Amino acid sequence: MKLFSRYNQVLLATAIFGLCMIGYLFYLTMGRYLNEQVDRYLVEEQLEVRENAHSMEADNAHEIFKDLVVDYQKIYQISLQKHFADTVFFNPKKRTREFARYLKEDLMLNGQPVRVTVIVSKIAHSEQIKGIFLSIMLPVAALFVLLLLVNRLMMARLWKPFRQLLLNLKSFNLNQQDNFRQVETPILEFRELNDAIAEISQRIRSEYREIKLFTENASHEMMTPIAVINSKLEMMLQSNELSEQQGKDIHELYKATSKLTKLNQSLLLLVKIDNNLLRDQQEVNLKDVIGERIHYFQELLYNKKISLDLQLEEKTVSMSKFLAETLVDNLIGNAIRHNHVNGTIHLSLTKNMLKITNTSTLPAIDPEHAFERFYKGMQSEGMGLGLAIVKQIAVLHKFKISYSHQEGKHTFCLNF
Predict the structure, then answer these.
(1) What's the CA gap between 391 and 374, in Å, rounded?
(2) How far apart are alpha carbons 336 and 399 in whole angstroms?
(3) Which of 80, 227, 314, 329 could lock onto 106 through a cystine, CB 3.0 to 4.6 A?
(4) Are 317 and 324 in contact (CB under 8 A)?
């Protein structure tokens, strides 16, 4: 959840809770005030009842207040003091049941104990209270809504430089020459953040250039002596003066330097992929690329007597053709290298997926670590970088690569 949305939720919840509490307390206060007013009316009416006690005529008392009823009940002895309470009664004048307030007290009228109940309707006063309540709470509610709208607009305006700063940060690329674009803002905290990001970006760019330059120079400088070593070893292998043991040793050295050459090339390729340095993007037909690379691996397939099952549909992706060839080479090469004699490879290409399955006597590899650099199975003779390169190419182009193993078959699936 965004910070702005979370802030608005908390503010809105607090405002609604506060408004409800204010309304509830105000309504209780007004209700108490209403009861006090009605109680005074009831006391006044009871005084009128005492003054008219000689006649014991209720009608005279009834006319003092509207919607008021006085009830006389003869009792044997006085036992009840003044008692106020709410009730619901039948209003004989309106012929409806209404909410009311009553005062009940035992009095001596004409020397006889009588329980006098004075009941007055609260409808008129309730309507008055509702009018007062609405006349006060509606403007308060409108003020709350206005404050929320103003707060939302102000917060959106205040956070606009931050969002622009975030967009500039996301679009910042170390490989481009443009410096980090700062945002003009009058807010001190955002200016400090702006300056801090600009300073950090400059430092990162400087360190990145140094590392990039060192990697390229080191790789280039390593290639020259390795090429010389390979050349000398090839010449020595062609010599007739070597003993059998010397020939074996030189052959092992030649294999080691060849592996070192591939390792150097793979690491350099990973650096280029990580930093998106291969920008020759074009519309690449994967079906054609797979056909070309299958022809390249034809001799290896023939030597291991591997049968190949192809199911290819037309699929075009926007990427470097070199990376597309590297991706296909690593997947097919991996399927051939870890296959057994007379094995099979099933390769299918659809609009949404590239899937390659190969038979193998090797156990399953850990799916969580299969695409890590230098990770390889216990019986693997590779360098552990082929699948890492496949993973980085997939990440660069937002593909999803996965691995599974079932019934002696290893499957790599690339979802576009």
Answers:
(1) 13
(2) 23
(3) 80
(4) yes
Look at residues 206, 229, 226 and name the one whose alpha carbon lies nearest to residue 218: 226
Q: Residue 276's pLDDT is what?
A: 65
Report phi then psi at 374, rounded to 5: 65, 10
pLDDT of 63: 43
pLDDT given at position 59: 42
DSSP 372: S
Over residues 361-378, mean pLDDT:
76
CATH placement of domain 3-130: 3.30.450
Alpha-carbon distance of 292 to 132, in angstroms, equals 87
Sign of dihedral through CA atoms 10, 13, 19, 22? negative
pLDDT, one tens digit per residue, over 186-215 is: 778 878 888 888 888 888 878 777 777 776
pLDDT of 60 strictly over 60: no
E strands, 228-294, in order = 281-285
Q: Cα–Cα distance between 310 and 329 in angstroms, integer?
A: 15
DSSP 58-89: HHHHHTTSTTEEEEEEE-SS-----EEEEEEE
Residues 6 or more apart from 199 whose CB is under 8 A from it? Answer: none
Rounded to two decimals, the pTM is 0.50
Assign residue 341 a region (left: φ > 0; alpha: ψ between -120 and 50; beta: otherwise): beta
For residue range 80-128, list pLDDT tens digits in order. 778 888 888 777 666 777 778 888 887 877 777 888 888 887 776 667 7
CATH topology of domain 281-415: Heat Shock Protein 90 (3.30.565)
